[in-house]
């Protein structure tokens, strides 16, 4: 459960919850291109929308997607509890799915590596989050990626980043307690804010290398990405 970025060896491979059908457009931002038109996102230093009537790029894209609630996404994620990696640290359906997507080739080119099969035994917390978004039909507002840091930046750049643990939010952790995106180690879903300084989560690639429900201290949270839900 490291930053999960491909360098030159398969085991160094990524596993971050991803940047939806996100294609980099340089240092000024990203663009969404997922068969629903192209929406340019704001630059990295953009401020959240001030107007209550203004829509973010992700909200605009969501108008063309199925109406999916946070509860539905969490139910789908919960059904994966118990799915476990093999002795090599891979072999899950999340690995297989990610390697089959065009996004794998994009992140491979970005992060380094020889083949999409470098992801076969890679850490997979982000692949899990990305898979849930795909299966729920809301990938363009959930994101898909194999590098947690890049995915968190994508939420931030699209104005969907914050510090409030809401059900269905994508939660990013730094085990050292840091609060910068560059220090992110792991990702999962928020199931519940317990109101006592902890959150209940659903995460892939945790514990013994499986999908589990966990209770985490908010002191280890860097921030939250907010997909667009119907509720």
From TrEMBL:
Q: Which PROSITE patterns match?
A: CHAP
The signal peptide, as residue positions, is 1-33
Q: Does the keyword Nucleotide-binding apply?
A: no
Source organism, top-level taxon = Bacteria
Q: Which InterPro entries match?
A: CHAP_dom, Papain-like_cys_pep_sf
UniProt keyword DNA repair present: no
Q: Which UniProt keywords apply?
A: Signal
List where the protein spans the membrane: none
Q: Which Gene3D superfamilies match?
A: endopeptidase domain like (from Nostoc punctiforme) (3.90.1720.10)
> What is the official name of this protein in its record?
Peptidase C51 domain-containing protein
- Domain Peptidase C51 positions: 100-226
Tell me the classification of the organism that encodes this protein.
Answer: Bacteria, Bacillati, Actinomycetota, Actinomycetes, Streptosporangiales
Q: Which Pfam families match?
A: CHAP (PF05257)
């Amino acid at each position: 459960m490291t930053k999960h970025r491909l360098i030159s060896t398969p085991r160094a491979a990524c596993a971050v919850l991803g940047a939806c059908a996100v294609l980099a457009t340089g240092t000024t931002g990203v663009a969404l291109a997922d068969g629903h038109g192209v929406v340019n996102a704001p630059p990295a230093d953009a401020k959240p929308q001030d107007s209550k009537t203004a829509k973010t790029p992700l909200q605009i894209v969501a108008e063309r997607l199925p109406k999916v609630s946070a509860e539905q996404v969490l139910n789908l994620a919960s059904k994966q509890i118990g799915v476990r990696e093999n002795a090599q640290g891979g072999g899950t359906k999340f690995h297989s799915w990610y390697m089959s997507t065009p996004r794998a080739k994009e992140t491979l080119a970005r992060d380094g590596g020889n083949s999409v099969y470098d992801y076969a035994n890679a850490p997979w917390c982000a692949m899990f989050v990305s898979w849930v978004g795909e299966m729920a039909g809301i990938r363009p507002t959930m994101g898909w990626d194999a590098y947690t840091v890049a995915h968190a930046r994508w939420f931030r750049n699209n104005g969907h980043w914050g510090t409030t643990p809401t059900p269905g939010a994508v939660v990013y952790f730094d085990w050292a307690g840091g609060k910068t995106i560059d220090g992110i180690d792991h990702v999962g879903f928020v199931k519940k804010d317990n109101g006592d300084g902890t959150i209940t989560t659903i995460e892939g690639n945790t514990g013994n290398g499986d999908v589990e429900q966990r209770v985490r201290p908010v002191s280890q949270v860097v921030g939250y990405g907010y997909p667009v839900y119907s509720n």
